[in-house]
Request: fold
Amino acid sequence: MRKLVVAFVVLAGFAGLIGVGAVTMLLSGGGGRSGWASCSSNLGPWGDGAERGQRDAAKLSGESLGIVQRIIEIGQQRGLPPRAWQIAIQAGKTESNLANLYHGDRDSLGIFQMRPSMGWGTVQQVTDVDYQINKFYDVLLEVPGWEEMRPGTAAQKVERSAFPLRYHQWEPMAAHLVSAEGDISGITACDDLPSASVLGAQALQYAHAQLGKPYVWGAAGPDTFDCSGLTQQAWKAAGVEIPKYSQTQYFQGGVHVPLNQAQPGDLVFWGSGRDPKGIHHVALYLGDEKVLHAPQPGESVEIETLWDGGELLPMVVRPAADTPPQVAAVPAAGGEG
Reply:
């Protein structure tokens, strides 16, 4: 929720004037890092994906780099696009730190922690590097629409993990590792960022129906909401699962997009000192510098002009479905009453 600061009451008028200017600067691209000259290299909460990807890649061991090279080589031999290599690298990094392990949870083994008891192959097979990589690709190719998914989502479809969001962490590193071998297309490219036009409209349609319902900390409907409970349920109504808490929604809720490229339905965040690690509030962007949100105790779900106060983050989050939405007629979101 928004921080309750006594001084805010005294300085509301002055802070409001400052906020308008700051919001305008952020929306026009003047605040923080703006614009993705190369989206595949600028992934990440601070637009620092290129630097983070390089740093993470530089920490890989010789064994890990050898496995990465083999993932790429086998992908090339099979005629698979770089997107597939990226997915396999993210899965391997998440499951084993890109090491050919001879241990794991229960009978999980190897780079991708494949389990012989679950039909992935014999112990000898699931610890053979080439077998594992080919098996991963075999299963990936059976996932409908994997090419259009965010790489971490596709990795989860193969791994069937109980922690589906953790694969996204290594997206910049994987994109960096394969970028020298081929163009990484899809959600990591500017032109193909998931559109909020269809799913965002569905999320906002739900959110508008909650206007006037009271704020209750920790609530996620149907009669009361806190800030992240409202955003979670709105996107759930659009068929997209995102985490519950505002900070987790920022780091694991979808694709990061500069605020000046925000579309209706995107998640807007506030954090102490504009620091993602200090996030305390989230809202749904409506367009025209307005947001719909559950403000704080004693208030109700409402529409408000986008404010800053020195805490508005320069990046928003655009939740993405596991598969592209079916384009269909969507009723227009309700008015601002």
About this structure: The first strand starts at residue 255 and ends at 258. Residues 1-22, 28-47, 186-194, 323-337 have pLDDT under 50 and may be disordered. Strands lie at 255-258, 267-271, 279-287, 290-293, 302-305, 315-318.
